[in-house]
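Morning run. Coffee first, then this:
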Amino acid sequence: MELATILMAVLASVAAVFFLDFLLRTVNRWVYEYPLGKKRHSLPPGDLGWPFIGNMWAFLRAFKSKNPDTFLASFLSRFGKTGIYKAMMFGMPCVIVTTSEGMRRVLTDDEKFKPGWPASTVALMGEKSFISIPYEEHKRLRRLTSASINGYDALSMYIPFIEEAVKRDLESWTKMGDIEFLTVLRKLTFKIIMHIFLSTESDTVREALEREYTSLNEGVRAMAIDLPGFAYHESLKARKRLADTLQGVIDARRKLRRDGKYSGAKDMMDNLMDVEDENKTKLEDQQIVDVLIMYLNAGHESSGHTTMWAAFYLEKYPEVFQKAKEEHVAILKNRPAGQKGLTLKEVRKMEYTSKVIDETLRIVTFSQFVFREAITDVNIHGYVVPKGWKALTWFRNVHYDPKLYPNPKEFNPSRWDNFVPKAGEFLPFGAGSRLCPGNDLAKLEISVFLHYFLLNYELERINKKCPIRFLPHTRPMDNCLARVRRSPTAVTI
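And here it is:
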C-alpha cells in the first residue's frame, strides 16, 4: 500500500511538472503569437520557451559546455531542417536564421530589416553608434568616418606604428616566461587602436580606457540584469566611466585647439571632431564617443582574439606555419633596396596569410550572430517573420556547413584555393550596408603581427588540452597560456 502511494505521488509530481511546463510555454504563445491572428499559422517551427527566460537557459547551457552547437541541434532534431526557427532570445520573440540564403536576405534587405539589437546591448554600445541608428543616419555616419579608419591612406599611415608596437612586444614576451598569450595580445591591439584614436594621450588614460572597456565587454553577452553582482550591471557602470573619460579627452582636446596649444599629430579623434557633411554639419560629442566605443570592438577585441587563434593554429599545424613563413621570406627577398618596413601593397600580396586569417575567422566565428528587426512582415523559406520580431543570423551554422566547407572543424587554409564564397556564405564581419566598419583595420593588424611572428618567433602552448569557453567570445580557459620563443631560423630584417 505504501509503495502504491509513493508511486502515485511520483506520477502526480511528474504530471504537475509537465502541466506547469505546458502552462508556462503557453504564456508566450498567448502574448506573442495569438495577437498575430492567422499569420501565427505561418510562423516558423520552434519554441518560445517560458516567460522572460525564453530559450536563454538552453543557450547559456550550450555555450558554457564543450559543444555550443547543441543549442541549434536541439531545434533541428525537434523541428527538422527548415532553415528558420522561432525562439525567445534576450527577452524578445525572434526567428533564428541558419541558411546562407536567409542570412543574405536579412543582412542586405534594408527596406525590410533594420538593426534589432537588444536595448541592453544598445545601452552598452551607445544610442548613436552604428548598431542602432536608422539606415540614412548610418549611411551618413559611415561615409564621414570610413576614410579615417579603413581608407588606403589611413591604413598606410597606421602601419609604421603597428610594426614598431608588434616588434617591441614580441621581443619583450620572449623574456617573460609563461604568459597569457591572449591577454598580452589584447593589450597590444588596444595599444594600437588607442594610438590610432588618441595618439597624444598618456599611458594612464589608455590603461584606464582598457580596464573600462574590458568590463563593458563582459556584459555584452550577459543576461540584462541591472542589479549589483551581475555582469551587466558592472558593464553599465564601466560604460559610463568610459564615456566620461572620452568626453573629458574631447573637452581637453577642443580647449587646446581653441587656444592654439595643441601640437600632437592628427589622429582619429581630430578627424571625428573636424569632419562635416555637405551641409557643414559636424558630429555631436555623443556621436564621437559612441563611434569610438564601437570601433574599440572592431579594432581591438576581434583582432586580438583572431590573432591569438591564428598563432594557435599555426603552432598546431607546422606545415601551415612553414608555408606561411615562406611567403613572408619571399616578401623580404623581393623588397626594393633601402625600403624599411612593410607597405600596404606588400600586405595585400600576402595571399596565403590571408587564407590563414580567413580560415581562422571561419572556424572561430568571433561574432556568433547579429540582430535585425523586421520592418514589415517578411517571407523567408516559406515562413513569416512578423513585423517587429527580431531575426538572428546564426553565422556559426553557415561557417560549419559541410556542403560549403568539407570537414568544417578541420583547420585548412588551402580550402580557400580557387574558392570564393558567395554572398551569405562567409560572414565574419557581417554583410550588406552594415558590414563591420573596422574590418580592413582588423585584418591589417593581424597581417602585420603574423609577418613578424612567422619570420622570427615560435609559440609554445603550456596546456595543449586546455578546454575552450565560448562566451562572450571563443577562447581557451587559460587565455592561451604559452611561451614565445625566438625561432632558431629567425630572419634578419
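The chain has a mean pLDDT of 87. Good start to the day.
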